[in-house]
Amino acid sequence: MKRVFLFSALVLGSFLGLKAQNVDVNKPQMSESVGMVPIQKGNWMVGGSLGSMGYSFEGESFNVNINPRAGYFVSDGIAIGLSLNGGFQSVKDADDIWTYGVAPFVRYFFPEGSSATGRFFGQGEVGIAGANNGSDVTFAAGVGLGYAHFITRSVALEAVVGYNYSKANNASAQAQNGLGFNLGFQIYLPGQGNR
C-alpha cells in the first residue's frame, strides 16, 4: 500500500510541477503594427533585393540580379538613395554575361491602401550599367510597384514588380526592355530626431 501511495504522490507531484512551469513556446513574429514610424522624415533604409529574376523580350535572355540599396527619408513617406546592381545574364545562342550598375532612386510610400503592418510604394531609378563582355556603358532606367510587409518595427519584407529599360551609349545600339520581379528586405533605421 505504501508503494501505491508513494507512486501516486510522485505522479501527482510531477503533474503539478509541470503545470506550474506553464511552458510558453514563442511563435515566430510574422508582422508588427508600425504605422508611419519607419518612414518618417530623417530615417534611413538599408537593404535590397536578395534575388530578382526577369526575362527580356528582345534578346531572349534570362537574368538574375542582386541589388543592395540605401536611402534617406527627405520627407514622410519619400526616400531618395542609391542602388547598386550586380547580376548574371544568360542569352540564347551566346556567351553568358556578368552585369553591374549604379542608379540613384526615389521611393514614395502611398498613404492609400496602407495597413498598420504594410505599405504599398512606387519606385523609380535612372542610372548607368555595364557588362564584362566589353560593351559600352548603357543608360538604364526602371519603375516599379511594390509592397513592404513589416515583420518587426524596423524590418520589412518586400516584393516589387517593375519595368526596366536600357540602351547602350552608341548610335547602332538597340534598346532593351522587359519586366522583372524582385524579392528582398529593408531595414529601417531611426534618424537622430526620431529615436
TrEMBL record:
Keyword Signal found: yes
Annotated keywords: Signal
InterPro entries membership: OMP/PagP_B-barrel
Gene3D superfamilies xref list: 2.40.160.20
Source superkingdom: Bacteria
Annotated signal sequence range: 1-20
Protein name: Outer membrane protein beta-barrel domain-containing protein
Organism the protein comes from: Olivibacter oleidegradans
